[in-house]
Amino acid sequence: MVRVILNGCNGKMGKVIQNLAEKDLNVSIMAGVDKNSGQNKFPVFPGIDQCNVEADVILDFSRPDALDSLIEYGKRKNIGIIFCTTGYDDNQIKKIKEASSSIPIFRSANMSIGINVINRVLKDISGFLYKNFDIEIIEKHHNQKVDAPSGTALMLGNTIKDSISQDINFVNGREGIRKRLHNEIGFHAVRGGSIVGEHEVIFAGQGETVEIKHTAISREVFAVGALKACEFMYKQKSGFYSMDDVISY
Predict the structure, then answer these.
(1) Which of 87, 141, 155, 208 could be cross-linked to 109 through a Cys-Cys bond (beta carbons 3.0 to 4.6 Å apart)?
(2) Residue 104, C-beta contacts closer than 8 angstroms, at least 6 positions apart
(3) pTM for this structure?
(4) Is 188 annotated in the active site?
(5) To which H or E segment does residue 214 belong?
(6) Which family is this protein grouped under (predicted)?
């Protein structure tokens, strides 16, 4: 049984994870961290530094400003951290990678197994299609999401970029009057209602298009991946891990 501290336990994703974990025989949430109160079946602390419950991993679905305290706690307790939060800046991403030299660190912009399979497919086809196709990425999320483009869209874009030998530029939206350049990947963000998450990669050529799309129907898809990541990270050595490792596990 993997013992978990859930950071952000009373947020939208935290509540979904709690419900799913109750049915999971391999994972148990031992404590939560959240500034907001809720109806929890485990002790909840307002900050990770106040948590005195023993656990095997920390699962983080909160906000970027929690990063430093989580890393400090993980190092002090010598336990792994699973970062599922998006919106980190470059300096914070650097801190996450540096921490992986001391403790097991997992980070993914999207915990869905399906979107990560798509990411693998993009590694295989993007370099081949680029010569004759323009590439655009459209992502849609609910009206409370604060970062744009989404972390998942950037993950897909960077996978495509790394698969192409030429220099690629990212362009957000298409405001202005000019033709697109072939070496661009355009990102387009839609925010509205309660859309859980949609990501579409379009390869547009002469007379044909190739479209790869993933739709998250409910937040449970991210919770499933998160709990699988907890199982994978249990007793891992220090290092940097991602959903690629979980899919292969």
Answers:
(1) 155
(2) 80, 81, 233, 236, 237, 238, 239, 241
(3) 0.81
(4) no
(5) strand 209-216
(6) Belongs to the DapB family.
Mean pLDDT of 176-197: 96
**Could you report the per-residue pLDDT of 102-132, keeping only the tens digit for each?**
999 999 989 999 999 999 999 999 999 999 9
- Per-residue pLDDT band for 175 (boundaries 50, 70, 90) equals confident
152 annotated to bind ligand: yes
**Parallel, antiparallel, or unpaired for β 197-204 and 134-141?**
antiparallel
Given 15, 141, 161, 228, which residue is catalytic?
A: 141
Domains of the chain: 2-111+219-248 (3.40.50.720), 113-216 (3.30.360.10)
Catalytic (active site) residue 199: no
230 is in an annotated binding site: no
CB under 8 Å, gap of 24 or more: what pairs does 217-220 form? 218/16, 219/12, 219/13, 219/16, 220/16, 220/20
